[in-house]
């Protein structure tokens, strides 16, 4: 147990800076688990010392060279046996009570908690706010970047659209398997506003390691304002003749003459006819700072958008998005050939996607360096 604790603390310290630490005590969930672990470790240490003492005492006291004859032999000792059973039973009961108590505390409190539905798919995440109906229709949702308020329980309901994935954002507490056809709800929380890392924790295919997300925790007032802006959001209508307008048209209709599939068949953009649920929600794509489910961030994410649109499966193994430069790719075990868009058309799509922005004051990345 000591080795485990030491390892946990060390990795915790190393990873704290990346926002990936089970030792983050700003989460009540993590405090509860830490408190339980301290009890378990303390009991283990006491037992370890007790057994070690008994062993060394016996070895020392009954050394052969100290005695001429073997010590007195006896069989059975009812008193000792009762103790040997009773003490472990008491310890197990004590630890069980602690566990059940923590489970009760950490159980979701659906009435007051903020609710977020988490969908895991190969190889990305969608975060939907089932209680926040967008003015333009549908629920507010965001792909690969989860917003949550600080200082209150957040009830996450996790499921998978294909294989088993694992939701793991250790700073806000807990880890849950995301399983197809199963919905699991539990609560997470943090006291501290900031950005935390989330990873898929269940080996799920070629891009398991590229299935990441960001958790952006905002102070209550700012969270409310941001979600209100998301609720009111409608994707901007591009000016006629602009690259964005061409991008919009390609997004909605694709280009049938070169077999380029429409994006709208798979993706949703709030306030437009695009309502696809096969891929992540792109409503706030221009505000997002990551690309490819956390594969790239910031400037790099911006740079990678063009290669991404041309041939996502070549830059992210196993990505199910088709190619748009006509190159071959493998999806669901079959070799496929993508449609073709010109460089101008790819640039227009990128311009349109970048225009999908929340108003400045609702940019949840605003204060993040
Ligand atoms: Cu999804 Cu690993």
From TrEMBL:
<keyword id="KW-0813">Transport</keyword>
<keyword id="KW-0479">Metal-binding</keyword>
<keyword id="KW-0679">Respiratory chain</keyword>
<dbReference type="InterPro" id="IPR045187">
    <property type="entry name" value="CcO_II"/>
</dbReference>
<dbReference type="Pfam" id="PF00034">
    <property type="entry name" value="Cytochrom_C"/>
</dbReference>
<keyword id="KW-1278">Translocase</keyword>
<feature type="domain" description="Cytochrome oxidase subunit II transmembrane region profile">
    <location>
        <begin position="14"/>
        <end position="110"/>
    </location>
</feature>
<dbReference type="InterPro" id="IPR002429">
    <property type="entry name" value="CcO_II-like_C"/>
</dbReference>
<feature type="domain" description="Cytochrome c">
    <location>
        <begin position="242"/>
        <end position="357"/>
    </location>
</feature>
<dbReference type="Pfam" id="PF02790">
    <property type="entry name" value="COX2_TM"/>
</dbReference>
<feature type="transmembrane region" description="Helical">
    <location>
        <begin position="39"/>
        <end position="59"/>
    </location>
</feature>
<dbReference type="InterPro" id="IPR036909">
    <property type="entry name" value="Cyt_c-like_dom_sf"/>
</dbReference>
<keyword id="KW-0408">Iron</keyword>
<feature type="domain" description="Cytochrome oxidase subunit II copper A binding">
    <location>
        <begin position="111"/>
        <end position="229"/>
    </location>
</feature>
<keyword id="KW-0186">Copper</keyword>
<protein>
    <recommendedName>
        <fullName>Cytochrome c oxidase subunit 2</fullName>
        <ecNumber>7.1.1.9</ecNumber>
    </recommendedName>
</protein>
<dbReference type="InterPro" id="IPR008972">
    <property type="entry name" value="Cupredoxin"/>
</dbReference>
<comment type="function">
    <text>Subunits I and II form the functional core of the enzyme complex. Electrons originating in cytochrome c are transferred via heme a and Cu(A) to the binuclear center formed by heme a3 and Cu(B).</text>
</comment>
<keyword id="KW-0472">Membrane</keyword>
<keyword id="KW-1133">Transmembrane helix</keyword>
<keyword id="KW-0349">Heme</keyword>
<dbReference type="InterPro" id="IPR014222">
    <property type="entry name" value="Cyt_c_oxidase_su2"/>
</dbReference>
<dbReference type="Pfam" id="PF00116">
    <property type="entry name" value="COX2"/>
</dbReference>
<dbReference type="InterPro" id="IPR009056">
    <property type="entry name" value="Cyt_c-like_dom"/>
</dbReference>
<keyword id="KW-0249">Electron transport</keyword>
<dbReference type="InterPro" id="IPR036257">
    <property type="entry name" value="Cyt_c_oxidase_su2_TM_sf"/>
</dbReference>
<keyword id="KW-0812">Transmembrane</keyword>
<feature type="transmembrane region" description="Helical">
    <location>
        <begin position="80"/>
        <end position="100"/>
    </location>
</feature>
<dbReference type="InterPro" id="IPR011759">
    <property type="entry name" value="Cyt_c_oxidase_su2_TM_dom"/>
</dbReference>
<comment type="similarity">
    <text>Belongs to the cytochrome c oxidase subunit 2 family.</text>
</comment>
<dbReference type="InterPro" id="IPR001505">
    <property type="entry name" value="Copper_CuA"/>
</dbReference>
